[in-house]
Amino acid sequence: MSDLPPVRWIELGLPRPDDPSRLIFLKADGPFALRPFYLNPEGEGEIRLHLDRRTEDGGLTGCIACGHPELFTVKRFPRGLGIAIVVVAALLAPFTAYLSLAVAALLDFIIYHSAPEEVHCYACGAIHRGFRDVPRHPRFDRTIAERLRYGERAVMGSPMRPEGTADAPDPEH
After folding, report:
1. Nearest partner of 71 among 19, 121, 21, judged by Cα
2. Cis, peptide link before residue 159, omega less than 30° from 0
3. What is the reported pTM?
4. What is the phi/psi pair of residue 54, to 5°?
5. pLDDT tens-digit profile of 68-123?
6. Contact status, residue 93 vs residue 156, Cβ threshold 8 Å
């Protein structure tokens, strides 16, 4: 283990076994407080976790839910708030000599850059919050998503890296 301060909490959004489009959220006191399996709180059966995808320092080398090695990072930006700021600024623009648009842009910029990041799985859609950002996973790459969705029929699909997306560069598009 390194001398890094402890991770205070983590949150996992795991796909429901009966409906993968809906998530079950689990919270723990850190990545090492997770158990190998949890009982499904909304049905029968259990949810098994791939704890081998954690690093020694509390980062991720792959998805805790399904074990897939390809993940992407997104900002946890409240989209509804961003849209509301722009709409209000647009409505006020004629009365403020359009200065409200500049204020909205500045406010959006501040909120976006102060928003925490979360890691999503390309394969199952699980959300990982609160884990260390080392190794870092790049932002969303459509070529990976196309390859996983369409398999060999994918036109844009790039081949999978043997080690997954851990410390991979951001896509160029």
Report:
1. 121
2. no
3. 0.83
4. -90, 150
5. 999 999 999 888 888 999 999 999 999 999 999 999 999 989 998 999 999 999 99
6. no
Contact 12, 127 (CB under 8 A): yes
Rounded to 5 degrees, what angle do the CA atoms 20, 11, 33 make? Answer: 115
Give me the chain's average pLDDT, please.
87
Closest Cα partner for 66 from 48, 44, 54?
Answer: 48
Residue at 164: amino acid letter: G
**In sequence order, which residues have a C-beta less than 8 Å from that of residue 141 and are 6 or more positions away?**
72, 158, 171
Cα 91 to chain center, whole Å? Answer: 33
Distance, CA of 103 to CA of 119 (rounded, Å): 30
N- to C-terminal Cα distance for the chain? 36
Give Dmax over CA atoms of the chain in angstroms: 60
Return the residue matching tokens 């949890």. Answer: 38
CA gap 145, 142 in Å, rounded: 5
Rounded CA-CA distance 154/51 in Å is 31
* Contacting residues for 62 by C-beta, under 8 A, at least 6 apart: 50, 53, 68, 69, 70, 71, 164, 166
Q: Is the pLDDT of residue 39 over 70?
A: yes
* 46, β-bridge pairs: 39
Output the pLDDT for position 169.
Answer: 83
